[in-house]
Amino acid sequence: MILASFAPGLRENTTLLRLARVGRVIRIVRLLPDLRILTIAIGRSLPGVASLSVLALLVLFVYGMVGWTIFDDHAPQQYGTIGEAMLTLFVTLTLENLPEQIALGRELSDWTILYFVSYALVAAFLIFNILIGVVINSLEEARAIEHARERADRLEQLEPGEPVIEERIAEVREALDRLEADMRRGRV
Q: Using an 8 Å Cβ cutoff, are 123 and 60 in contact?
């Protein structure tokens, strides 16, 4: 940080110096293993979340078109264009205004309940559950990566010739297998 203030071009720009100070916060990620796991999980979940976002946008577009077709004349404020319909449905993803949307649809026809219920099932429940699955899967992968890194660090810290705990466990298992085989032979 101090060296950055002496670099030409940086010392005149306080915004860049402040950004350089933010770099100090990143060191915390290296010191706290749980935070490191979460950071790795976020990075690993980005491709899945991006794909899921495209799927959600596609669902919003299809339901927005259908909603625009159904409610264009009945509720032009919310469904007057495809963009407004998509925005209304995006807000409905929280399911907070779903009862009002259903009441709006029932003014037109009882068949609109099918539209809103299918939207709630597909958009809200299915997409959010897939999102949760992507994040949990990424978290498990991050934990495995961190566990492998910690194991590699432990192996580096061992002195040459010092047995690893996994090797000791394997030796004990082999000894138990031999003992069990000896006991079987003695009974026969």
A: yes
Question: Is residue 65 one of the residues assigned to a domain?
Answer: yes
Instruction: Tell me: do 6 and 98 sit in the same domain.
Output: no
Q: Which residue type, as a one-letter code, is found at position 49?
A: V
Residue with tokens 């219920």: 117
DSSP state, residue 163: P
| Interior/surface letters 11-28, b for 16+ CB within 10 angstroms, e for the rest | eeeeeeeeebeeeeeeee
Within this chain, do residues 71 and 129 fall inside the same structural domain, yes or no?
Answer: yes
| Contact criterion met (CB below 8 Å) for 92 and 100 | no
Whose CA is closest to 108, among 83, 79, 87, 82?
79
Alpha-carbon distance 15 to 13, whole Å?
A: 5
The pTM of the whole model exceeds 0.70: no
pLDDT in tens, 116-128: 999 999 998 999 9
Chain centroid to CA 97: 26
Phi, psi torsion values for 47, nearest 5 degrees: -60, -40
Q: Which two tokens stand for residue 108?
A: 């037109």
Contact between residue 31 and residue 128 where contact means Cβ atoms under 8 Å apart: no
